[in-house]
Amino acid sequence: MSDVTTIFNNPLYTVQEKTTATGNSQIDKEAFLKLLTAQLKYQDPLNPMDNTEFVGQLAMFSALEQVININNTLEQLANSQVYSNALMIGSTIIGKTIVTTDGTEYKAQGIAVEDGVLKINTGEQYISMNQIKEIKA
Asked: How far apart are CA 13 and CA 42, in angstroms?
C-alpha cells in the first residue's frame, strides 16, 4: 500500500504562488490587425471563417480604433484643462498672500505645473494647491 503523504507532493494537489504575466495584457490596434491577418492567412480554405464572424471581428476592430481615438482626445482635453486652470488661478493669485495648512504665510510669485499638478511658486519653494488653507487680498 502506498504512503498517504505522497499525494501532497503531487503538483496537482499543492498550492503554488500566483504569478503575474510580464507581457502587455492589453491589445492595441496594430496587434489586433496582425492577429486578424494571421487568422486569415492560416484559415482552412475548405472550411473558411463564417462571414458573420469575420464581419463581427471587423466591427470589433473599428470599435477598438474609435475607443483609442476617444481616449487620446480625452487625455488632450484633460491636459488642456490643467493648463487652463493654472492660467485662471495664476491670474488671480499672483501677488497675493497665501497661508498654508501649517500657518506659514507666503507671497505668491508665480505658478507651475509639475507632473500634472498645479503648484504655487513662493520664491522659496513650490506649494501644492492642497497645502493652501487661505488666500489673503
From this structure: 38
Other Cβ atoms less than 10 A from the Cβ of 120: the count is 26
Q: Which domain holds residue 91?
A: 28-38+49-136
Query: Are 129 and 119 in contact, with CB atoms under 8 Å apart?
Result: yes
- What is the edge-to-edge ordering of all strands in the sheet holding 105-107? 105-107, 97-100, 132-136
Residue 3: inside a domain: no
pTM attached to this predicted model = 0.45
Q: Cell numbers 506649494 correspond to what residue? A: 127
Cell triple for residue 108? 505668491
pLDDT the model gives residue 23: 55
Q: Which residue spans within 36-102 are E strands per DSSP? A: 97-100
Give yes or no for a contact between 90 and 110, defined as CB atoms under 8 angstroms apart: yes
